[in-house]
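Let us work through a complete example step by step.
Step 1: write down the sequence.
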Amino acid sequence: MITYLLLLAIFITNTGCTRNSPSTTVTEPTTTATSISSTSLSDIVTTITKEVEIPKSIATDLTDENFKAYLFIDPIAGATALSYDAMMSTQAHSIVLLRVPEGTDVSKVADEIKANANPLKWICVSAKKVVVESNGNLILLVMSSTEIADAVAANFLALK
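Step 2: predict the structure and record it as C-alpha cells.
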C-alpha cells in the first residue's frame, strides 16, 4: 500500500510539471475607444495580444489582497489592474496591466515592479523574459517566453 501511494505521489508530481502548450484564444475588443486612457484594461490586453500566440489565460481583477502576488509591489490607492495568467500553472506566462491614478510617478512604480518581479513565481517553470513598460498612466508587466514578451510589449508601446 505504501509503495502504491509513493508511486502515485511521484506520478502526480511529475505530471504536474510537464510542459503542455494549450491553444491560443483571443477575443476581439468589445468597444473601440479613442485613447488608451478611456479604454478598459481587458480591451487593451485583447488589443496588445491580438497578433500574438499566447497560452489560454485566465483574467483576474487585482484587489488589495492579490495585488502583490501579481505585481510584486504593495497596492496603490486608486489604481486598477488586471492579470492574464496561463490557465495551466506549468506554463510560465503572465500579462499584468496596471492603470495608476493621475499624479502617480509612473516611472518610479514601473522601476519598483521591474526590481521586484519574480520570473520564478511558478513552481515548476520560469519565465524566459520579464518586460516592464509604461505608456501614459499604464504599466505593463509581461513574464513569458522572449517572443511573447517582446511582441506584447511592442504592441503596448504602439498604443496611442
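Step 3: interpret the result. The first strand starts at residue 57 and ends at 61.
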